[in-house]
Structures are given as C-alpha cells and as structure tokens.
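Z., the sequence and structure:
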Amino acid sequence: GILPIACEMRRLEHLAYTPAPDIVHEAAGHAPIIADPEYAAYLHAYGEISRKAIFSKKDIELYEAIRDLSDIKEDPKSTPTQIQTAQVQLEKTVASIHYISEATCLARMSWWTIEYGLVGDSSDPKIYGAGLLSSLGESYNYLSKEVIKLPFTYDCIQTSYDITRPQPQLYLTRDFPFLTGVLEEFADTMAFRRGGVEGLAKGKFAQTVTTTVLDTGLQMSGVLEDFRTDIHGSVYFLKFQGPTQLAFQDQELEGQSAQYHREGFSSPLGKIKGKNEFQINSKVTLEFESGIQLIGILKNKIQKNGKNLVLGFEDCTIKMGAEILYRPEWGKFDMACGESVTSVFGGAADRAKYLADTGGYKQSPRKPKTNLTSENKKLNELYAQVRAIRENGKPDKNDALFKIHSELEKLYPQDWLLRLELLELDATYALNLSFKEALLGRLTEISKLADDKAKMIARGLELI
C-alpha cells in the first residue's frame, strides 16, 4: 500500500517527454489511477507475480545501461559525447541479449500497461498509463493515426521498448480486470508455477540466484550450476555454486545460511528404497531409485510439519556406480529431502538474510542531480518571481511583469514556457499588457525552431 516515488524534476528541455522518471511522472502519472480498486488489484497481483520472476545477468546489464542513458540524457551538464557513448553502450547490451527472461517479459507487460496503457473502447480510448499521463507530448499525440493501437493480449511480452524515446504503438485493454486475467495467463507459464525440469532449466540458464522448492517444502536458494535427470525426466541430483541458503516458508533454517554453505550445495533427490527412518548417530545406507547410494552417520534432522527437510551426515560417501559425488574428507554433508521439484523462482527465499550474508546485487552509485546551472540560474529566479505574482492574486501594476519580459528578451530569447505564463496572467486578470504582441511574436519565432516546441506553444495558446 506504499507508493515510492522519484523526487527529481525533469528539465524544461524535456517538458514534452522525460527520458527519466521524475516527480511529475510519479505523482501525476502513477498516483491518481491507483484509487481505482480494479486497477489497484492488478498492480497488487503484478507485484506478487513479479517477485517470483527469474531474471538473468543480462537483465541486470540492460537495466544498468538504460538507467545510465536516462540519467545522462536528463543531466544538464552532460555532453553530446557522453550521451552518444551511453546510447552506444545500450545498443551493444541489447544486441548481446539472445534470451528473453521471465523478468523481461513482465517488464514489457508493465511498460505496455502500467506505463503506457490505454483502456476502454477503440473508438474513444482513455489513458491510464503513467508514462502517457505525465508526458505532454505523448499524451497529446496518442490519438494520432501514426501511433498504432493494438488490443492488449498476452503477446505484448514479445514487443520490446525504449524508455528514452516516444512509443510507436500502444495497447488497449477493454477494462482493468482483463489485465489481471492476461497476467495470470502468463504466470501459468512461469517457473514458480511449473517447477520440474522446465523450471530448473530456466534457473540454470539465468545464472542468477534462484530458489528451488521441493515437494517437502524445502527451499534451496543459490546459483543453480547443474541438475541431473533420469530417462523418465525425473530430477535426481542438484548442484548449486557459491552461497546457498536452505529455508522453509521463506524463513532460513537454523544452521543452513548462505554463509554456512558459502562454497556451494548439492544433494541427491528422489525416492529412497526401503525404510528411511533411522536413529541419530547410527550408520545408515540410503539407496535411491536413481541408483545413487549414500553411506554415512546420521547426526541430525531438520523437520517441519512431520516431514524431514534436511538430514545431516558425517563420514559420508555418495556415489552413483563408479562415480564419487561426495567424499568423507569434504566434511559434514546436509542432504535435501524431497522427491520432486514443485517450483523455481527468482531470488532467495529469505531475502533479507541471504543479502546480509552475501551483500547481494549492488547498483552502481548515482550522483546527486540538479537542473540548476550557471546558464539557467537567472531563468529560475524569473520563474520564481512569476510564481510569487500568481500566488498573490491579481498584479497591481504591469511593472513587475514588464521587467520579467525585458530580462527574458535580454537573456533567454528562446524560453517559451515563461512567456506563455505571462500571457496566461494577462488573460486571467485582463491586464492588457503593453508587451503582449512582443510575447506573441517571440513565441512565433521560437515555434519555427523545433516541431515539439511549436506543438506545445500552440496548445498553450489554445488553452489561454
């Protein structure tokens, strides 16, 4: 129920479309539509499902590249060379991706709904996406024939996007419950619901931290290095590399932290022949139907809801035929108890403790950003003066506004927005400004410099 928002402000040069989320995007785009209960239900479901998505190393690289380009484009101190370098890096990263992860698919669904979605009838679509609502350019242009409107379906996950550019197509949903239905349709294909070999394959390919869940409820969180299956497709052996956490119901099991299993974790799985209840400190032999044999001294058990989750052995040997999978000199062996893999999801089960032990994924630091430069310092002061005049009601004299106009002409001949504000004050209070024609003439000249400015000036004059 909490909406975290960015607190930065877009540059005037990016008024029509900002390449980086700002407070206008968050507060005017995201916040209002959350009041709709059906849309809020979609957001909640999306959050719960996204939390289980498997992301890859390439997803992290792409995120970093997009964020860098967004920040650099929005920084008034950035040079054209810096922008071009970041753009090239993003293009290289995109070109290197040959695998669409679950996280990527959900990111695309979010983009075409939460950020750029349309709702209603095709003859009269309404904006609900925050990216559209907070973009003066795209919110105006979305009805043009050049912007293709497609019916929202599961197939939207096949369409990529560029966060730094206007979108060439948009997706229209008939209502918000339909969004949730499509989301659930996709969720049914995800590894956290499919489990088994399919889920493990996604986890292994991603090479990021994932959690494998067994039918006993045991959760194993780490980077899946390998798994083995028999001729029937049943999984009989798992191997994780690096820090691995064992948990149950998203709570780390005592003594089974990622720090304890910092060198990795492996275990046989599957049905065990004969009885498998043995006394603590007794030497036992476990014969798995897969052909794996475990011989060792049982030292402890971890149980939940009457089921064995982990069996701890000393002096343990595990082999499959002539292949040795574990030797006594490697130390204590903890065996995962379970016959099948019911789920595989992204991230660790007990995330807080896993991150505390490993440090987790660290984003590159962001430098504090300000739009204030030596060039626009005086312009900001002029805007503040107009704001003060606006908030004090009808101006008594035109002198203050004339001085602002004179400063604009002298220092900022290409600034158009403050000139529109002066014209708005003139219309609101019937001031009959002596320099009104000069304002209009300058706006006409500015309109010739760029098409996007021309459109915003024209729309502003229409509203005035």
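The chain has a mean pLDDT of 92. The longest helix spans residues 57-74.

Let me know what you think.
H.
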